[in-house]
Amino acid sequence: FPARRKFLKSNQTEMNNIVQEYERVALVNPDVAFSLTHGDTLLSRLERGSLRHRVVSVFGKRLDSQLLDVRVETSLVNLKGFVGKPEAARKKNAAQYFFVNGRYMRHPYFHKAVMEAFRHLIPEGDQIPYFLYFDIDPANVDVNIHPTKTEVKFENESAIWQIVVAAVRDTLGRFNAVPTIDFDVEGRPDIPAFDAAGLSSVRVPQVQVDVTYNPFHSKPRQQPPVDWQTIYEGLERSAGVSVPESRDEPGTEDLFEGEDSATEERSMEHFQFRGQYILTTVQSGLMIVDQHRAHVRVLYDKYMSQMESRRATGQRLLFPEMMTVSPSDGVIMRHINDDLSRLGFDVTDLGGGSFSVQAVPADLDGMNPVPVLTLMLETAKEKDAGMEQEMRHRLALVMARSTAIAIGQVLSVQEMDALINDLFLCANPNMTPTGKTIISIVRQEQIDRLFG
What we know:
Blueprint: H1 11-27, E1 34-38, E2 41-46, H2 51-59, E3 67-73, E4 78-84, E5 96-100, E6 103-105, H3 108-117, E7 130-135, E8 141-142, E9 153-154, H4 157-174, H5 233-239, H6 249-255, H7 257-267, E10 270-273, E11 277-282, E12 285-290, H8 291-309, E13 314-324, H9 327-343, E14 346-351, E15 354-361, H10 369-380, H11 388-403, H12 413-423, E16 439-443, H13 444-450
Parallel strand pairs: 5-7
Antiparallel strand pairs: 1-2, 3-4, 4-7, 5-6, 8-9, 10-11, 11-12, 12-16, 13-15, 14-15
Helix pairs in contact: 1-9, 3-4, 8-9, 8-11, 8-12, 9-11, 10-11
């Protein structure tokens, strides 16, 4: 913590630092009960228990089924803890902790050792959760290389690196966490075992052929009567109904002439190319619009306007969705809850890191809101998201990207027309909120040059 008050940052930032330190101390002392209170609000209560129980209590019960035990003892170092299964990998903000002799440390070199063990098992760039505890002779560790004492230096780092890689790989092998070819056997039929004794009563099937059959001697198909007008003769005499006259082919074409020409003219206004781009003619040439980026821009402006005017309405869920987060994430969740309500969410704090999602924005109808809220929470945790306006920008951007038209989605002419109209109502229709191009125009001169 800063030595002087003037070096303190915002309340939210300092609260995050306190919660992080609380989690680090709690993870190395599972035999001690902890509680964290902010004002009159109890943020977290951790009971005494095993190391695994402490990890699950801090980071949520969902993590319990994704952890694999790591344990190895050597003459150089004893290593224990947990690593996540390959399916627990995520893009960012995974829980990753190293501890040496009961204190937290950061070690990029050993982090590479863990990721080396997961190479080819998770997508490149993904992060895997791990909680690894090193027990080593203090004489072989130098903690005085950084003022915060979180970075340490080991005498035999290369050898320990090999031990970490081997221990994690051994864990993945012992728990069969390496992906294998697995076939879906649910509902398969029972195939009886081969019994050679029962073959005595089985006979080879015989093929029977009708040698008298000749397909060319079959009777020709009976054609329907051509003079269909005779069907209406009785009806005409009894009810006085006029018999419809047959019309020539040119007359039949006239029935649909107006409709075909109108449809053709309308479809020429907007054309969708490979489910990603919308092509339309403008005075200077051919305009190409990225439909996904265009929808992101439209939704982003909509969500920013909602957060500023507080006029969003949510759609109530028939069955509320539950969401469990760590104490540090719970602090951020409470901080952004006001902005979430402006977007249309109704999130209730149940205490102990549990939240109930009661309502969602109408744009999320049919989608699971928990992954979207998790992504918004991870975005809010980033370092440069401390300012209120920057926080709203990030939340609106995540919502827009989550609900925008997907690349490859086929749109009707009416949907393309509505999207283009909404795009040009935006303050900046040419660029996405992150500065990417939405509209590109191929000029008439460029098209003419293509054809010489």
